[in-house]
Structure prediction request, 209 residues.
Amino acid sequence: MKKNPTKDSIVEAAIALFNTKGYNGTSIRDIAGLANVNIANISYYFNGKQGLLEYCYIHFFEAYIALLEKVFRQNDTSPTVKLKNCIEGIISFQCQNPQLTRFVLREVSIDSQVVREIMSTYSVKEKYIFTKIIEEGIARKEFNRISIPYSIIQIKGFLSMPFIHSYYLKEVLHVFLHEDYFQKKYVQEINKWIDEIICTYKKELYTIN
Prediction:
């Protein structure tokens, strides 16, 4: 897809400001100033701040669901590998887009009409894919007979926690999301949890030098 520098700069500015000042604390003038564009450009591309917010949601969740669907369609792949590939793909995507991820995950915790619409579309698709993978794993005796809703809660926690608490990770734990080491190590830790808690048999221990 051909890039639009003006549109992209508006989105990048909006995400940065939404993260630091909050959605309500950010004005169209703030976004235009940081993006170095005319205010009219924001109206033209997004029909105002609300349209820009919805664009950020859609941009994030379309990519998120596309990753899950791509893995889900791998019919020759075992449920264990599918689950791990979903985890790795999402963590990689979120590490590449940390500010967008942080903003979206924070905003979807707030009850609003837009969030309810997201829950009725993207979140339902996400639940369906994780449910089907886990059900297949149980049916094939790869997975223990675990509670699917509670397992999804745990998986969602693994996927969101570093980005919601990125300041804590950086300032207290001295862990940095932009480092390749974090992504590699964190995925290994989640895979270890899958092997030891979800799977019916233990696999090789994961180590990192």
